[in-house]
Amino acid sequence: MAVQAESQWNPPNKRFFGHPLGLMPLFTTEAFERFSYYSMRAILLYYLVDTLANGGLALDDAIGQSLAQIYSASVFLLSVLGGWFADRVWGPRRATLYGGLVIIAGHIALAIPIPTMSYLGIILVALGTGLLKPNISAMVGNLYRDHDPKREAGFSIFYMGINIGSFISSFIVAAARNWGGYHAGFSVAAFGMAIALLFYIQGRKYLNPAVDDVPNPLTSAERKRMWIFAGGLLGALAVVLVLVHLITGKGWLVNAIDSLTLLALAAPICYFVVMFRSKKVDAAERSRLSAFIPLFVAAMLFWMIFEQAASSMAAFAKDNTHLSVGGLAINPEWYQSINPLFIVALSPLFAALWGRVGNRVPTAIKFTIGLGLAALSFIWLGAWAAVYAGGRSPWWVLALTYVIQTLGELCLSPVGLAATTLLAPRAFKSQAMALWFLASASGQAITAQVLQRTGDLSHTTVFVGTGVVALVFTLILACLSPWIGRHINAGMEEPVA
């Protein structure tokens, strides 16, 4: 049904930079949603570990960093469910709308100075973002016919909105925090999401009607089973948390982090087992799927390092970096704007580079370069942390760390989803995005455990140790590149890697 609606739909004559006018509300919605998300993320760790007198929750530094990391992992984990609900229950437009409303509720809860409301807010923002994140991108794709030459440029404009929103967020939320405390910062995030929804609702008439379709709707019997299963699952999780608490004696927060870690690690394993065992997957597809496993691990390790921007690197910015540039005082949140700034500046150059070299640089080598840069960024940061042990390093040490990681992201991320889509078996193509999200979720879940258990170790030990592990796998991946290329090309008419 969705396909039919898409093929018959003719976009309005009005254009947005030469593209369907529906791109405008999606661009602005995503820009303000990302502003909202990154505003909250920029101050979350500081709020978790700051003293009660300063308006924080006074968590232990290691637990605070671990919680900030597992929150981010949960967003990617819940994005898998968000895509499923759009496909089976609500359709992408309503899933995005409901996700935005839940995000606003979460930020409002965080803006209320009551600790219980803060934890509720974190859960709601993760749930809402999981609903919105995969589906707004799907709606951008629905604006174009399958072979429209403007499709790729449309996504480039859309991703520009993401980076604009994330770039300005840390500056505004830092100003709000300085003026009115953490809860003022969370209020700014709620306001940003409210603006996003206004643009989204106002622009509904410019979207492809197919976004209201449910591609594979549940039957009445399946809906009943879904709610029974969901209730049973929540009940089982509650029982597990209570039992683990009684057995281990750990606090509920640590148990929640540990449980989410196990879930984030189990999910991709189950995905791979199901795909390998499926009768719908032929020998050539299994060969390509085998080649994807080391790429998945590489992506997992990359995001394990890269996503520490809001946890260990945010802590390093606040406690171990000189917060002044040329005599101008800066806020630690500002460091998180470096990545989107350089993404905007360098994306056209990398797009031209990959377009020029084509398949002469294999997919595995692009992954190798990306992971290698991430590994070197942490070794670089750890080395300088040793030089300035007990003091504060110059501002440019951490700034260059972000730049190196951004270069790695531009090598690995653009080809990552493409490789996932290419190598996923035909029967599982629609779930390729979910599999790619799980690489980030599992990598960050591992980071949450590392941070939780290394609170007494120095920055040098943690950063260099993590970097060395990633660097060792980088070398393994480089050696495996010819084998990966052969398996990727198994059964294909033309070599692609």
Automatic annotation (TrEMBL):
Primary site of residence: membrane
A Pfam family this chain is assigned to: PTR2
Membrane topology designation: Multi-pass membrane protein
Subcellular location: Cell membrane; Membrane
Xref: InterPro entries: Dipep/tripep_permease (IPR005279), MFS_trans_sf (IPR036259), MFS_Transporters (IPR050171), POT_fam (IPR000109), PTR2_symporter_CS (IPR018456)
A cellular component term, taken from the record's GO annotations: plasma membrane
Keyword Zinc-finger applies: no
GO molecular function, one term: peptide transmembrane transporter activity
Domain of life: Bacteria
Transmembrane segments: 68-86, 95-114, 120-144, 156-176, 182-201, 226-247, 253-276, 288-306, 334-355, 367-389, 395-420, 463-484
NADP as UniProt keyword: no
GO biological process, one term: oligopeptide transport
Keywords from the named record: Cell membrane, Membrane, Transmembrane, Transmembrane helix, Transport
Similarity remark: Belongs to the major facilitator superfamily. Proton-dependent oligopeptide transporter (POT/PTR) (TC 2.A.17) family.
Protein name: MFS transporter
Species, as recorded: Winkia neuii
Lineage: Bacteria, Bacillati, Actinomycetota, Actinomycetes, Actinomycetales
